[in-house]
Automatic annotation (TrEMBL):
One of its GO terms (molecular function) is glucosamine-6-phosphate deaminase activity. The lineage of its organism: Bacteria, Pseudomonadati, Bacteroidota, Flavobacteriia, Flavobacteriales. This is Glucosamine-6-phosphate deaminase. GO terms for biological process: carbohydrate metabolic process; N-acetylglucosamine catabolic process. Transmembrane segments: none annotated. It comes from Flavobacterium hydrocarbonoxydans.
Amino acid sequence: VIFESSNAGSIAVANEIATLIKEKQKNNKTFVLGLATGSSPIKVYDELIRLHEEESLSFKNVVTFNLDEYYQMDPDNYQSYYYFMHEYLFNHIDILPENVNIPKGNLTIEESAVFCNEYEEKIKNLGGIDFQLLGIGRTGHIGFNEPGSHFNSSTRMVTLDYITRADAASSFLGIDNVPKKAITMGISTIFDAKRIVLLAWGQNKSEIVKETIEGEITSKKPATYLQQHNATTIILDTEASSQL
Ligand code: GLP
């Protein structure tokens, strides 16, 4: 779906999330929301905060699972996705802290493997993700599922692509400071979501957007797997759609 602006697209997405949360509230049920970081979802988060503040949207029945986190990364480091999520969303809404799940980037390798399995289990025990928000990296990654990620992959530790690290360099004061690894939900974790919405804004994303939508399905561009998901919408602004 192509919107005139990222603002208009973000408001539409926030409204869909709000409607789904309220439907679950009516039935006293938990809404399981998968969240993304990066610049793309920021306006969706702004709108969700506005709906909370001005239209009393409550997040008390919402359990969130974030897609990914850098490794090694302390949660209190301002470059962490933990910090990002609190800054841009969680500190401004009434979500219960125990309902927030973000991969931990500060465990040992052994602890991390256990953590990844528990993350998967926790999602499954809640009946799976109801709505998963995604951005897209220029490598075609979703979460941090870089080229080569298997369709059956689950939450795990991965090595970041050079392009991904180069794109993150400015927030880390140089590529040498960008972590080389990350923890990410897998393709199968994402694919199990009942509804998926991928956001892409701006000219910079137009090439990978074209490949994602029109290209062959390949592990070389993991976002192309989404072509096979039965409830995925890709939300674009005019610039991001310019090569379609
Ligand atoms: C990072 C995140 C992805 C995100 C991507 C795009 O690599 N791990 O989940 O989709 O950045 O970021 P942006 O939205 O800033 O373009």
